[in-house]
Structures are given as structure tokens and as C-alpha cells.
Amino acid sequence: MMSQEISQVVKKSMKDNHDLLTALGNEKPVQLSLTPKEETILSSILDLLPKSTEGKLILAGLVALVAWDLLRRRD
User: Fold this and answer.
1) Which residues contact 42 (CB under 8 A, 6 or more apart)?
2) 32 phi and psi, to 5 degrees?
3) Contact 49, 59 (CB under 8 A)
4) Full 3-state SS string of the chain
């Protein structure tokens, strides 16, 4: 008797999970869009960032130095 009830609960759970996954699979992907002003600002910021690995390392080092200096002055 108990085994039959457990079996029914498991079957119902599997069906519910299947229905949920089917519903999620039928959803259309969400496309994020930016306003032209946001795209322009983001593009401008990205243009300021260095493209080369060396440039990125130098920028990271500069940010670390500024952060260290700010932390040192805070104490």
C-alpha cells in the first residue's frame, strides 16, 4: 500500500517536472536591448579600454595602485 502511494507521488512529480521543462522549452529567448544613448555611452567606455593584454595589465596595475593608495590614506 505504502509502496503504491510512493509510486504515484513519484509519477506525478515526474509528470509535473516534464510539464515544467516543456513549458520552459517553449519560451522564447529574452533579448536585452539598450537605448541608443546607453549604447553610445557603453561603446565610448569600451573604446577607452585597452585592447592588448599588456594594456589591460597596465590598467589593472594602475587601478590596484590607486586602490592601495586610497586604502592607505584611509587609515
Assistant:
1) 34
2) -80, 135
3) yes
4) CHHHHHHHHHHHHHHHHHHHHHHHHCCCCCCCCCCHHHHHHHHHHHHHCCCCHHHHHHHHHHHHHHHHHHHHHHC
C-alpha cell at 35: 537605448
Per-residue pLDDT tens digits of the chain, which is 75 residues long: 678 888 888 889 999 988 888 887 777 776 777 788 888 888 888 888 888 889 889 889 999 999 999 888 886
Residue 26: phi and psi, rounded to 5, are -85, -10
Q: Which three cell numbers stand for residue 20?
A: 515544467
Q: What gap in Å lies between CA 15 and CA 20, rounded to an integer?
A: 9
What is the total residue count of the chain? 75
